[in-house]
Amino acid sequence: MRSTAIAYPLEDLQGWERSLLAFLVEKERRSGSRRTVEGYSRMLQDFFGRLGMTPDEVTAQEVFVWAHGKGLSGRDPSPVTIAARIACVSSFFRFLVRMEIVDRNPCDRLERPRASPSPPRGLSAEEIRRLLAVIPDTPVGLRNRAILLTLVLTGRRRAEVFRMTRKDLAFEKGRWTYTYRGKGGKTGRRELPPPAVDALQAALRARKQDLEALGPSESVWGIGSATFYGQLQGYLREAGLPPAGVHVFRHAAAKLRREAGESVEEVSLFLDHSSLAVTTTYLRRLEGQEDTGWGRVAEAIGVGGGGMRLPTLR
After folding, report:
1. The domain that contains 157 carries what CATH number?
2. Are residues 52 and 93 in the same domain?
3. Average pLDDT in the chain
4. CATH code, domain carrying 40
5. What is the dihedral of CA 135, 136, 139, 143, to 10 degrees?
6. Are residues 131 and 97 in the same domain?
7. Given this model, what pLDDT does residue 281 score?
8. Could you tell me if 130 and 188 lie in one domain?
9. d(C-alpha 99, C-alpha 82), whole Å
């Protein structure tokens, strides 16, 4: 992890820095999200940078003023932003209390505003088809098409897809599977649907590569999520669709599975949502088993279904 230490102005500089870094390390391990950790780091640096004091001096009043204060944009924060700021500071102080570094959490006295986040938006099958239609058959386009199909057909989170390396792929019992490390450190193995396999194979050929030539820890994409995000915005504009983040494909995956006839419980298991998948029995039953739902989704977005699954990747 890059150094994200807060530049505390007082004497116990190294002690507080160590506490912050330990908190961020624990947060990353528990959440499995580097993006969450970077967001918490930025907010904590802004909070303590503005206050100019160490955590043991912070009061509820200081947290309240900062959480409700204007940001860099000069605008008043939304209820969602206020709640996120308080949650971040409170999480850090809960860690300090657990570690017996401080004896109180100033956020305990604060009430968090009621926030009504906008509902998630998932692309429809027709919108996915429009998006696929504008992606060119160039090496870059073929790679991005493979990433998009993997996101839609597997429903995995952005980081889980972009972390995919050669050693995560295996051909077992007539089908390709991939392993992943999800949110909260959860690991699993699932089928990689044939349309995604075919798209990945085409992308590798266009780059004059194959899986045998890749090192075990080498990315199968050769691209980071930030670069893909920028190129995705161009595709969305060309397809006449509004801007969206990569996470929209996870929402699309859930929406398309539901429209294809799967139950809410089946979709929850597919997405590893612990709020509904409450038993390890169901999670174990899903581990590594054949994915029977991708065919209907693939047909809906126009990339074909069924067919014999051959070990075309080597």
Report:
1. 1.10.443.10
2. yes
3. 82
4. 1.10.150.130
5. 10
6. no
7. 31
8. yes
9. 26
- Domain count of the chain? 2
Which two three-digit tokens encode residue 66? 């900062």
Handedness of CA 34, 38, 39, 44 (dihedral sign): positive
Phi and psi at residue 241, in whole multiples of 5°? -110, 150
Q: Are residues 138 and 42 in the same domain?
A: no
The pLDDT tens digits for 278-308 are 323 322 334 455 666 778 788 888 886 544 3
Q: Indicate whether 124 pLDDT > 70.
A: yes
Q: How confident is the model at residue 151 (pLDDT cuts 50, 70, 90)?
A: very high
- Domain match, 235 and 282 both: yes
Residue-range definition of the domain harbouring residue 19: 13-109
In this prediction, residue 313 carries a pLDDT of 47
Whole-model pTM? 0.64
| Separation between Cα atoms, residue 42 and residue 104, nearest integer Å | 23
Residue pair 94/120 in contact by the 8 Å Cβ criterion: no
CA 219 to chain centre: 17
Q: Which of 109, 136, 154 is the last residue of a domain?
A: 109
Per-residue confidence (pLDDT) for residue 103, from 0 to 100: 93
